[in-house]
Specification:
globular, about 280 residues, mainly alpha, 2 domains, 2 strands, 13 helices
Length: about 280
């Protein structure tokens, strides 16, 4: 029964990873018929390239923004949905809805919303007496626009994760805390939040991985501009491989991305052993 799964991993995961490592050691492009072995030169050029570090900084900024905005918002929504208010099923559908919309479609919608000429957001600013903003034409606001779209797209997904964790918390623990004189905040802090440890760390890992894979929204909304202000790690790999036709450096960047994601996952799992409390 495991043979099909192993074949799938071998063909679509391990083989591409090994092949990417091999390509990263060669100077190759669509215009070089025979790749030339250059060792670690592609990695040296990669780490010396200012645009690589700009893409890395943009990705880190997005990751911090997602963890500061999307995860707390998702936790708040999950707590509210767990109160079993009237219309909870409808609210769940509305909150989770953006996640099932293709990212390309969402990117097109938000491009129209943030359009500098006649965009609904700027029209609202005009009604409120605020100055218009060139959302997608200025570096900081362009990256902020990408963050807003990404948070809107994935917050519902994290909400479902937290909601599943909340529904697995035994009610007896909260009742025991209330009997000891604990209020709502004490129950949330000492019971609910600790019991949500596995869900919280899972959401953090997934959030970091998804952020480092940010591509579609950048491709549709900004194309990495202006002046690389919204170029993310994944979009940098695309630019090097399919616009600059530098397959060697693109593969080297892919290998670095794999190492970063593996390291982040290891650190999160290692730290979770100290903080996560599993129900036994």
């Amino acid at each position: 029964m495991m043979v099909p799964s192993l074949l799938f991993l071998l063909i679509f995961v391990f083989f591409p990873m090994i092949y990417a490592v091999k390509l990263s050691l060669y100077q190759s492009s669509f215009f070089i018929p025979k790749p030339q072995f250059v060792g670690i030169r592609n990695y040296v050029n990669l780490f010396l390239a200012p645009d690589f570090w700009q893409a890395t900084a943009n990705t880190v900024w997005l990751a911090v923004g997602m963890m500061a905005v999307s995860l707390p918002a998702a936790l708040l929504l999950a707590v509210m949905l767990d109160m079993k208010l009237r219309g909870t099923v409808l609210y769940r559908t509305i909150i989770f809805g953006p996640y099932v919309i293709p990212m390309v479609s969402s990117g097109l919608i938000f491009s129209l919303l943030f359009a500098s000429d006649g965009g609904p957001v700027n029209l609202l600013f005009e009604r409120l007496g605020l100055p218009e903003v060139d959302w997608l034409g200025h570096g900081h606001t362009a990256l902020l626009s990408v963050l807003i779209l990404t948070a809107w797209q994935f917050t519902g997904y994290y909400t479902v994760i937290f909601l599943a964790g909340l529904q697995s918390v035994p009610s007896s623990l909260a009742e025991a805390c209330q009997v000891d004189g604990g209020g709502r905040w004490q129950v949330f802090r000492h019971v609910t939040l600790r019991a949500l440890g596995p869900s919280l760390f899972f959401a953090i890992v997934i959030c970091l991985i998804q952020t480092f894979q940010t591509f579609d929204q950048v491709y549709v909304m900004t194309g990495g501009g202006p002046d690389g202000a919204t170029t993310t790690f994944a979009y940098y790999i695309f630019e090097k491989g399919f616009q600059a036709y530098n397959i060697g450096e693109s593969s080297a960047a892919s290998v670095v991305l794999i190492v970063i994601l593996a390291a982040l996952s290891y650190v999160q799992l290692h730290l979770s052993r100290r903080w996560v409390v599993e129900e036994t």
